[in-house]
Amino acid sequence: MNRSWPDPPLQVVLMEPEIPPNTGNISRSCAATGSRLHLIHPLGFDLSEKAVRRAGLDYWPHVDLHEHDSLETCLKQPHRKVWYLSTKATRNYTDADFGPGDMLVFGPETRGLPEDVLEAAGAQALTIPMQTHAVRSLNLATSVGIVLFEALRQVM
Question: Can you tell me the distance from the alpha carbon of 2 to that of 60, in angstroms, rounded to the nearest whole number?
Fold first, then answer.
């Protein structure tokens, strides 16, 4: 079945990402799905053309990248709903009703989303269920992939 994709189907927001390979993997997923990628400064790495070329990110020209100084500035961009992903949330991501243009907000790898952001998110805060005695959290790129493709399944 050939379906038309909304523009953008989804938007991934990374607050202060710290680990370059995670952002590289996430940007590849965004390019593959046509999803917009928002990066909230400060970043834990260099995004200059030289650094991107040296990292071999041949798909980088296909990433719809937007950089922002704050989450508040990012949220002024057009969107339908904003979903906040955290290990501290209690609502399962599969219970969300994702739609075209929704923003999926993820926190920094070492700290996650700030407590005040999660409190304000209310029912828009989601988690990926896992056995917490086994691991503290999933890798950021893995988490984004899980939620992004579930949201895309619902949107398409």
Answer: 26
Domain count for the chain, please give it. Answer: 1
**CATH number of the domain encompassing residue 59:** 3.40.1280.10
**Tens-place pLDDT, residues 111-122:** 999 999 999 999
- How far is residue 155 CA from its own chain's centroid? 16
Is residue 1 one of the residues assigned to a domain? no
Task: Record the pTM.
Answer: 0.93
With 0-12 CB in 10 A as exposed, 13-18 as middle and 19+ as buried, what is 49?
Answer: exposed
Q: Which amino acid is at 54?
A: R
Contact (CB, 8 A) for 112 and 86: yes
- Domain span at residue 135 reads 10-155
**pLDDT, tens digit (0-9, with 9 covering 90-100), for 60-82:** 889 999 999 999 999 999 899 99
